[in-house]
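Quick review question:
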């Protein structure tokens, strides 16, 4: 790690590029504004390929040097506005990154072009801009187990590097890769590697190559989302009748005894994080900015990745427009779908006894069905049954310190969907070192309780309640 750091410091910089997951459909562009500090800045450029002078004309005489790192050649190209004829960096390439030394603070604005290709990593130093789903660093790089010597990101405010080693959280200054940030990755060994951000496997319901509708939306802030999830759990987020929460069945045989609509808000938060890392717009769209709505290859949309009734023919219906374009309506639609899955028990879904919606553990089969449930899911290669022999056992809780320090031995693919969600409830993701929501000590069913291949009813292993109130911030 020290050797690589010396290589970077010796040339005073390092670069990142940006790309989106391959399952996100190409859709209209958005305006991106990047705040630049005096000193070195590492900019993920998502605009169209264009001459350096054209892209940076808006900055006038505010900058001195521009650098771009070519990972394939393991060499920098440079542009000096004072010596343009001897500069070998002519164009800034879309979905790549560059360094710029600013003489004074400024703002760079460009129109982003949706990234579609995975990032190619080469032996040696790679400067990438990550736009995949937010996930532990060891999980994003799990396909490179044993080949990663170190990962760094540049902090422009302090003008210093922050370093990390995948699978060694105590020796790292960060442990999560976030979309829209730049990272330097040093790998060893022969051969290139196609890096794709981890994403939830979701069955495709559309014909190969079919396009998704180009909804436009705003990327919500974390505080807005916390408030929205809290209200959605109590059915208080939107007034649209078609997005209202149904009453919940609580009788074990499904014959009556319904109660008022309620979904534990922390459960909604964890599902949304699993689905989209709390992004309603595409990963390249900054929080507070506007751009294309996040969509999957099966045309599931937004923060909750809503697929049901979202097949657009011609123009979207008013309801589809709400779900695709408004994050609050999307969250409400996701909550409604989850309640509908709950009400499918006792057939075709089994029941977690005693079937109380205030108990987080009792939502186990509904969470499973939110992703995919039934024989068709097995045919698609999904492994959501916890007793499936294709999954490793024993396995630590997802996102737990044990999983994060496993050196890539346990990745997202080693967990059924519902264990991703319940793992996040117990071990929430962090923003600036602070958990995004209050951790809750949920307990998963013991091995053999569900049974494979045909799941059965089982008694809840514990009764964990969500203390969140609808008015909580």
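Suggested answer, residue by residue:
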């Amino acid at each position: 790690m020290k050797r690589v750091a010396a290589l970077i410091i010796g040339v005073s910089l390092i670069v990142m590029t940006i790309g989106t997951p391959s399952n996100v459909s190409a859709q209209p562009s958005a305006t991106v504004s990047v705040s630049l500090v005096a000193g070195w800045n590492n900019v993920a450029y998502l605009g169209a390929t264009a001459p350096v002078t054209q892209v940076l004309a808006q900055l006038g005489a505010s900058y001195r040097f521009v650098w771009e790192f070519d990972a394939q050649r393991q060499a920098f190209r440079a542009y000096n506005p004072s010596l343009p004829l001897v500069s070998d960096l002519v164009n800034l390439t879309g979905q790549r990154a560059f360094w710029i030394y600013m003489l004074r603070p400024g703002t760079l604005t460009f129109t982003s072009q949706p990234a579609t290709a995975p990032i190619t990593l080469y032996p040696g130093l790679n400067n990438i801009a990550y736009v995949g789903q937010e996930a532990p660093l060891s999980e994003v790089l799990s396909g490179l187990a044993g080949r990663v010597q170190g990962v760094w990101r540049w902090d422009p405010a302090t003008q210093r590097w922050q370093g990390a080693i995948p699978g060694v959280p105590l020796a790292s200054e960060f442990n999560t890769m976030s979309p829209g940030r730049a990272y330097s990755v040093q790998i060893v060994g022969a051969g290139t590697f196609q890096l794709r951000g981890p994403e939830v496997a979701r069955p495709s319901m559309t014909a190969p190559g079919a396009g998704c509708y180009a909804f436009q939306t705003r990327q919500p802030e974390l505080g807005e989302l916390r408030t929205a999830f809290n209200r959605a759990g109590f059915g208080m987020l939107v007034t649209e009748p078609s997005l209202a929460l149904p009453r919940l069945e609580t009788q074990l045989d499904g014959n009556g005894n319904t109660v008022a609509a309620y979904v534990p808000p922390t459960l909604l938060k964890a599902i949304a994080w699993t689905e989209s890392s709390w992004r309603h717009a595409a990963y390249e769209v900054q929080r507070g900015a506007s751009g294309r709505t996040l969509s999957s290859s099966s045309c599931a949309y937004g923060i909750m990745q809503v697929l049901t009734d979202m097949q657009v023919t011609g123009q979207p219906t008013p309801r589809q427009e709400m779900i695709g374009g408004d994050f609050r309506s999307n969250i409400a639609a996701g909550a409604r779908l989850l309640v509908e899955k709950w009400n499918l028990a006792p057939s075709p879904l089994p029941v977690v006894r005693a079937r109380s919606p205030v108990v987080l553990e009792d939502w186990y089969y509904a969470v499973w069905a939110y992703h995919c449930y039934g024989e068709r899911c097995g045919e698609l290669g999904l492994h959501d049954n916890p007793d499936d022999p294709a999954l490793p056992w024993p396995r630590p809780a997802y996102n737990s310190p044990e999983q994060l320090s496993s050196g890539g031995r346990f990745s997202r693919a080693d967990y059924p969907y519902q264990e991703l969600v319940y793992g996040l409830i117990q071990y929430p993701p962090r923003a600036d070192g602070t958990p995004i929501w209050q951790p809750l000590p949920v307990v998963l069913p013991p091995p053999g309780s569900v049974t494979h291949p045909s799941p059965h009813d089982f008694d809840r292993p514990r009764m964990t309640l969500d203390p969140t109130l609808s008015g909580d911030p």
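Why it works: The radius of gyration is 23 Å. Confidence is low (pLDDT under 50) at residues 1-28, 204-209.
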